[in-house]
Specification:
The protein is α/β, with parallel strands linked by helices and about 230 residues long. It has 11 helices and 6 strands. A 6-stranded parallel β-sheet has the order 3-2-1-4-5-6, sandwiched between helices. Helix 9 links the parallel strand 4 and strand 5.
């Protein structure tokens, strides 16, 4: 690859795998089992996209509760196990096959999980070993570390990277890294409030159907080519 090579970088959960709704439901279920008198869901939902440990810590803090380390580990295991069974996002395979850019995945999940779900859904063929995960960087999203690591790993620069993100956490990270961000709201957990929230976090365009992604990628490539002249 040359330094000027362009890349498409996708988040995993909510962009490649339609797992966020499944994960959120399991998080809520596990916490309600421990705190039956607490209204958990309204606190959990805005925190989605963060590492599970941070979601749990933030939820406990807001509700004035505590979780033992063993509970945190058990909940993370239950959430990841549930997410493992989630399907690929509708249309993502066809979309990726139409985009002639090198592709990478940048995730707030740990690498063994990402490798497993991409293999199970047949999406690994698009990414190979170009996986950049939270367990390999100093700070997870919303810090830009994982996206900056992806640019370095792909031997390119942030301005040559197009990112697809579904969460404010991820959009913030990619935007902070200096990349162009597309916000995707077509997953099972999408809501109308996400549109403005993603735009506020730096998404230049928000879309809800993966069939639109090849066209959006082509527009980005074309506008970049015009800007370089």
């Amino acid at each position: 690859m040359t330094v000027s090579a362009r890349a498409l970088i996708c988040d995993c959960d909510g962009v490649l795998i339609d797992s966020e709704a499944v994960a959120a439901a399991m998080l809520v279920r596990e916490l309600e089992a421990r705190w039956p008198d607490a209204d958990v869901a309204p606190v959990v939902m805005p925190l989605l996209g963060l590492r599970i440990e941070r979601v749990l810590d933030g939820t406990a803090t807001q509700l004035g509760r505590t979780l033992a380390p063993a509970d945190v580990a058990a909940i993370r295991g239950a959430v990841e196990q549930a997410a493992m069974q989630a399907p690929a996002v509708a249309g993502i395979g066809d979309a990726l096959s139409q985009i002639a850019l090198i592709k990478a995945c940048a995730s707030n999940s740990y690498r063994p999980y990402v490798e497993s779900v991409l293999a199970r859904t047949g999406l690994k063929r698009f990414f190979g070993d170009r996986l950049f995960c939270a367990d390999a960087v100093a700070k997870p999203k919303p810090a830009p570390d994982v996206y900056l690591a992806a640019a370095r790993g792909l031997s390119t620069t942030p301005e040559h990277c197009l990112v697809v993100e579904d969460s404010v956490t991820g959009a913030t990270a990619a935007s902070e890294a200096g990349m162009t961000v597309l916000g995707f709201i077509g997953g099972g957990h999408a809501s109308a409030q996400q549109i403005e929230a993603l735009r506020a976090a730096g998404a230049q365009h928000v879309f809800d159907d993966m069939r639109q992604l090849p066209g959006l990628a082509a527009q980005w490539i074309a506008s970049a080519a015009v800007g370089s002249h």
